[in-house]
Amino acid sequence: MASIELRNVNKWYGQAVHAVKDVSFTIEDGEFFGLLGPSGSGKTSVLRMLAGLETITEGDMLFDGVSVADKTPQQRNIAMVFEQNALYPHMTARQNIAYPLKIRGKSKAEINEMVGDVARMLHIDHLIDRRASQMSGGQQQRVAIARALVRRPNLLCLDEPIAHLDTLLRARLRGELKRLQRSLGTTSVIVTHDPIEAMTMTDRLAVMRDGMLQQIGTADEIHNRPVNAFVSQFFGLHSMNMFRLSHLREEAGKYYARLEGGEVGVPESLTPLASAAGSLILGCRPHAVEVLKSGEQAPADAFTVTGKVYVAEPLGDEMLVTIQVGDLIVQAFDGRKRDYAIDEEVTVAARSGMLYAFNPDTEATTRFSEGSAGSLKSEIRAV
Amino acid sequence: MTDYTPTLTISRPPPGERSKRERATERRSTMILLAPALVFLALMSIWPFAYLLYASFTSYQLAVPIPIEWVGFDNFTKLLSGERFWSSLGITAIFALVAVPLQILIGLGLAMLINSVVRGREIYASLFLIPMMLAPIIVGFSWNLFLNPIYGPLNAALRGMGLSPPAWAQSPEWALPTVVAVDIWQWTPLVMVILLAGLRSIPPRIFEAAKVDGSSPVQTFFNIILPMLAPYMVVAFVLRFIDSFKVFDVIYILTRGGPGTSTQNLAYYTYDVGFGRFQFGSAGALSIIQLILLIVGTSLILALVRRRGVGAADGGRS
């Protein structure tokens, strides 16, 4: 086990691709750390540099304060679980798990004991003598995890280890991995593009985009206080609704702005956040939006937009309503589960207190929602 | 419309419902469609083989106008008691059991080498393939020129270095190693291509997993690459094993089986008996013996492989 520090790490592939740009962060000893980002964000490159499978072009990496930039994966004593298909196909599960021990020259008895322990831990003792091709994808990943854990690594690297499994299995392995990590206390890094995995499993996580670090924090911190529009849209079970307003103007004490070719009213309290040119980005999570049918009245200080219902999807306790406003898609949860007709005209309303605001030029967050503290819990319950 | 069960598949009606006439028509049209292929196969394969089998039990000789008589196993016993048969068998065995394993070894080395090349892998692979693409007759003539004791560039170079080189294909000691070397030169590329395909089929993640597991390159080679290549090596071995019985062109051009009978394998011996002495009965018997040897040899290899589990269904899959 080790604490890990990245100092201004850069990765270039050839001359043209700058995959990781000046990334620095620290992972505490025993921490479960997540690297989250869309594909091409550089998260896998960071993990592969941590594992020692890629060289660091620039910058330094320290394990327990000692630079490991020039060390092999073996010298770093890291273990890795790959996306899929990384078991040795000609070996049985037992031989796969035992392989790292075997080449380290452990005795037969020792190997048997360690393999048995880890196999029980991952509930694969009944298929220990099967080959990779005789196992399902989930079983193969369990064996891969067992192979990684059997030698008690300093750092466990997980490269989307459960991304290719079906939903139920994924949810189950998520929990198992988290419990295992907690009970073993192995410093672990997981790469994922799935915000749910990142939220549910990790202690802290880093959101990346285009090779750059966007934000580091706990799931709650990132969910409730996203640093910019990208993080707020990417992180969470449902993307944040974004309203890019322009041409803000005042008329008889009320404020109006252009949105998707139409004009919408803007609560006065938000107008100081607009740029000099009258542009402003507002955001709100689907749970903070009310859907109003025609004839219903929006609250006084609400931001309202009118559009047509694109589709309404019942999700058990709630209804997820997708509304089209010009080319813009707005999603809202309706706790009352009313019926909606296709193309029915509705108004979405968000109290100004529930709105986030972003700088229209830098997209940095300029105002956080006041009522979002509880929304993470309610969103997770919804799925 | 009672007892109607809807089905999702459109199937033919059950056999009982089809009339006999309908089935007869179908069988007839099947036969008509298959007939050209069957006739061709019978004329080109089955009949010649049957004739060969028949001839091997007769005294069929083209040169001497004696009536063809059934002689039973005479041809076989005569051959098996002759010294020339056993020496030819020994030469064939050297091709099958020395040249072929060497081809596999060198082919494996070349495949590993080319697989490790990052840029221009295809170019190197194609260059190495040239020997295999040449007609055997051209290979023979090229080597004949190259190895010529007086005018050949190889001996000129060796003499230039102050050595006194042998006459290669014409020397009693060097003739066999020479033809074996040419065979290896010509057919190693085939093995290389097969093993290269095998190597390329191993997902790169496997190598990374091995690296992370702390496996050294040597350990990775013996514990992971070699077992995963085993099915491909078996394919290459069986193909080359069968071909090794048929080596003829290069021997014909380089040594004519000589000096003496030192490079005469079973194929050349068969040719000599059949078209040198026109003893078609004996030549037929020789062919049959080779066929039996091939069948037994290949079955043995495959049985051995099956028992050891190499190349089992999951060998190449991941």
CATH topology of chain B: MetI-like fold
CATH topology of the largest domain in chain A: Rossmann fold
Instruction: Specify the CATH architecture of the largest domain in chain A.
Output: 3-Layer(aba) Sandwich
Tally of DSSP β-strands of chain A: 21
Rough outline of chain B: flat
Strand content of chain A: 25-35%
Unreliable stretches of chain B (pLDDT < 50, length at least 5) are 311-318
Structural domains of chain B: how many: 1
Superfamily at the CATH H level of the largest domain in chain A? P-loop containing nucleotide triphosphate hydrolases
Structure overview:
The complex is a heterodimer of chains A (383) and B (318). Chain A folds into two domains: 4-228, P-loop containing nucleotide triphosphate hydrolases (Rossmann fold), CATH 3.40.50; 231-382, Beta Barrel (OB fold (Dihydrolipoamide Acetyltransferase, E2P)). In chain A, α3 packs across α4, α3 packs parallel to α5 (137-149) and α4 packs across α5. Chain A is elongated and about 85 Å long. Chain A contains ten helices and 21 strands. With 383 residues, chain A is an alpha+beta fold. The model of chain A is unreliable at 372-383 (pLDDT under 50). A six-stranded mixed β-sheet of chain A has the order 6-7-8-3-9-10, with helices on both faces. The relative contact order of chain A is 0.11. Chain A is 25% helix and 35% strand. Chain A starts with a strand and ends with a helix. By secondary structure, chain B is mainly alpha-helical. Chain B has a single domain (83-308), classed as MetI-like (MetI-like fold). Chain B is built from twelve helices and no strands. The longest helix of chain B is centred in the N-terminal third of the chain and has 36 residues, at 20-55. Chain B starts with 19 loop residues before the first helix and ends in a 10-residue tail after the last helix. The interface between A and B is medium-sized, with 28 and 24 residues.
